[in-house]
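Quick log. Single chain, no ligands specified.
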Amino acid sequence: MLGKALLFVLALSGVLLGSGCGSSASEDLPTTMPPASASNPRGQAYPEDHLGTRQRQGRTPGDRIANLSFRGLRSGATAGSELETLSLADYYDPTATDHSVLYIFAAASWCAICARVARELESHGAELEARGARILVVLVNGESQGAGPSL
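-> predicted structure:
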């Protein structure tokens, strides 16, 4: 089950975020998303209606984000742990049992500002989670580390 600790997706993302530009080969990075889980750990299906990009208008929420998936580490994983398939469905909590807000932070290893924000999230993560937030940090590198996203 998902822990309450700050989530870092992809091994040692805090280290990677602080590492600056790199030149590793692209064979380590997947070019397609793995299949997404269709439901959360309680068996509740991720909603498939109202997917889109409609912007929030005042207090009216925008459309839902698609059930994105990626390879990464769950909270509490240690160095050397195997990457697993994660998806937004894994964090879907319609009854706010575990969290009331899912904060998704997209970062890149080549982004100095992202590294600073990641350090801030790490130092304030417990406080935010105590207030009902779940934090998900996702690395969005391009096909080679040190390049921008290839979305």
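The chain has two helices and five strands.
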